[in-house]
């Protein structure tokens, strides 16, 4: 079961529709065009297009499986007293006093540029279930981060 936000679900549906309605017909046209060029045993364009089709069909299947198991969570019914999925957490790195704000999301929605980290990331795992004022240690590849939770919002 994959819990995700409505925004993440809608984005995944849009990506899937783009692949099915735009990319797949483009690849099928490329295969047909390459097939028309003659001998398929030595036709590089044909083999490249078939490989691309295989990769695309695999990605489509993967996204369909995610959507089959997806459950959209209504963030408005979630409490904001503890850290959990779809919560925005403001924290301070006690090692250098740097302020950080992350939203904890499903792994398929994670995007560091947007401030969204996977619930399966070391930082999120250390924060889960904690409350404002708690100090946690997150074991990250570069060492141990000591973080203080300053605020939790939806």
Give me a quick take on this structure:
This protein is of the alpha/beta class.
Task: Describe this protein's structure.
This protein is an alpha/beta fold. It contains three helices and seven strands; from the N terminus they run βααββββαββ. The chain has a five-stranded mixed β-sheet with strand order 5-4-3-7-6. The radius of gyration is 22 Å and the shape is elongated.
Helix content: 25-40%
Task: Look at the helices and sheets and give the structural class.
Answer: alpha/beta
The N- to C-terminal Cα distance equals 22 Å
> Strand order across the biggest sheet?
5-4-3-7-6
Largest sheet: 5 strands, mixed
User: How many strand elements?
Assistant: 7
Poorly predicted sequence stretches spanning 5 or more consecutive residues:
none
Mean pLDDT: 90
Q: Give the SSE string.
A: EHHEEEEHEE
Number of helices: 3
What percentage of the residues does DSSP assign to strands (E)?
Answer: 25-35%
Gyration radius, to the nearest Å?
Answer: 22 Å
Shape field: elongated
């Amino acid at each position: 079961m994959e819990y995700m936000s409505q925004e993440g679900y809608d984005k995944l549906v849009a990506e899937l529709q783009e692949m099915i309605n735009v990319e797949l017909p483009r690849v099928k046209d490329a295969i047909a065009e390459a097939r028309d060029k003659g001998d398929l045993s030595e036709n590089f364009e044909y083999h490249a297009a078939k490989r691309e089709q295989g990769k695309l069909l695999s990605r489509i299947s993967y996204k369909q499986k995610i959507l089959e198991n997806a459950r959209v969570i209504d963030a408005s019914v979630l409490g904001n007293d503890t850290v959990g999925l779809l919560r925005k957490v403001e924290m301070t790195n006690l090692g250098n006093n740097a302020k950080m704000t992350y939203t904890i999301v499903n792994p398929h929605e994670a995007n560091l540029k947007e401030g969204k980290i996977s619930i399966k990331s070391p930082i999120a795992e250390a924060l889960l279930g904690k409350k404002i004022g708690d100090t946690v240690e997150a074991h990250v590849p570069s060492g141990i981060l000591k973080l203080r939770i300053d605020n939790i919002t939806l």
